Amino acid sequence: MRRAACLLTLLLSVTVARADHATALDVCFNYSCLTTQTVLYSEAHISSLRNELQLANDAAEERLRLQDAIARMYRWAGEQTPIHVDRAGDFLDDGAYGRMDCIDHAHTTERMLEALQAAGALRFHRAAGIERRRSWLIMQHFSATIEQNDGGGRWAVDTWFRDHAEPAVVMDIETWKDGGYPDE
Predict the structure, then answer these.
(1) Residue 47 buriedness (CB in 10 A; 0-12 / 13-18 / 19+)
(2) Spatial separation of the C-alpha atoms in residues 66 and 101, rounded to whole Å
(3) 158 with 171: CB under 8 angstroms?
(4) pTM recorded for the entire structure
(5) Secondary structure of the chain: what % helix, strand, coil (to 5)?
(6) In this predicted model, what pLDDT tens digit does every residue of 139-176 receive, in sequence order?
(7) Nearest partner of 173 among 135, 128, 136, judged by Cα
(8) Alpha helices, DSSP H only, in 43-120?
């Protein structure tokens, strides 16, 4: 009887461990990463993102699919943190707890890209760090970036331009550095 109880306990612990393969990453908010909170993406979340991104036939299609994948990751993060209040830019959510500036977005998006990369979801790109652009010496803006695996270029993956959980802007890095803005 004692042996059966030990075996049952062992089986239950293995089942719980298998069901608990969540991906944790830190989301930062309240401007300049003043506040950080860990969010969990279930194995089902990551699997659905990987399956969606794996449908891409080439790098251009992967970038298009990545816009929505990052949006979904933000949506799920907004269910666990106050970042759901975030609005495009820095002024529409001024003073709200959970607001995000470009520094918050760049760091959070970079962590999301790294999580997708670690999960094997990116086939044509890799996470490539955070980039900064400057204009008029004072103004600066930050974004996460990806690099095409075959040397085909770098891309800004910028979520700051749009409201919470809307598709990310994926823009050629040189256009972005020159002050490019989506929908121009």
Answers:
(1) middle
(2) 21
(3) yes
(4) 0.86
(5) 40, 25, 35
(6) 789 999 999 999 989 999 999 999 999 999 999 999 99
(7) 128
(8) 43-54, 59-80, 102-118
